[in-house]
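Morning F.,

Quick status update on the modeling queue. The single chain you submitted on Monday has been processed. Sequence for confirmation:
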Amino acid sequence: MAFKIEKEITPQEVEARLKRGEELRLLDVREPAEWAAGHIAGAVHIPVGQLVERCKELDAGHELIVMCRSGGRSGLACELLGERGFSVVNMTGGLMNWTGELTGE
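Structure tokens below.
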């Protein structure tokens, strides 16, 4: 049975919320080279392949917006985290559709 991601958000909605000053918890599950090429400031980086063993680093008490390059890996990450009791939202379209600023720091 396929996991259904209950909540989704577009990159444009995330950007608008950040511009309004909302404190969002962002999780980037891309590979290290993708992260280094540019990511949203303030995001936490845990590659999807490390997520199961590193999920203890995340706060299960807050909703996480999960992102990758196009939305596929973040969907898998949402499934993995959802099964572990996390409240997750998949950023559909991923950073390919992000029009805001990215940082390489």
